[in-house]
Amino acid sequence: MEPLITLGVVADTHVPDRVNALHPALIESLRVQGVQRILHAGDVCVPAVLDELEQVAPVSAARGNRDWMFTPALPWAVEMELGGARLALVHGQGSFLRYWWDKVLYVLQGYRFERYRNVVLRACPHADVIIYGHTHQAENRREGGRLFFNPGSASLGIIPGRVPPSFGVLRVYTGGRVEGEIHVLKGWKVQRGRWVREIG
To answer: What is this structure's pTM?
Structure first.
């Protein structure tokens, strides 16, 4: 069965605060997947990133904790209904205090899906699909009748140099069915804030 719509999902591009440009394979990879709309789950950092993604498909973006340069400001959450499914797009950092407390917990405990699940559920309690970023950790997890979908960082994985960058694809079908895929971006690595080809 053909999907009603195919969504490309990107997060944590961090241009230019961590890398100088979008991953060299990202634009073509989104085209190959046939995406008809792109959702950016925050930490875009500069509007030029959204302009570049717009060359592939229309873009909707949520505000991340690094997106202070946008005028007008990006929304904290974007909600939509597609094919009978309620989707919500957020970054996932929570409140100012929650953000800093999580920094402490990350040092003490490392990554824990449950911490971020609780934050995004509080922001989007009625969504069937919650799309978020912030953690740089890809997730495609069904829990409690919901799909929690994090595409991972399109620039630096949760462990730079060991966990590769990635993006996601959501295919929306009639009857509210949504299927998610995580796609790893290969062939390039970051050195001193610039993309260089991997050898071997």
So the answer is: 0.94
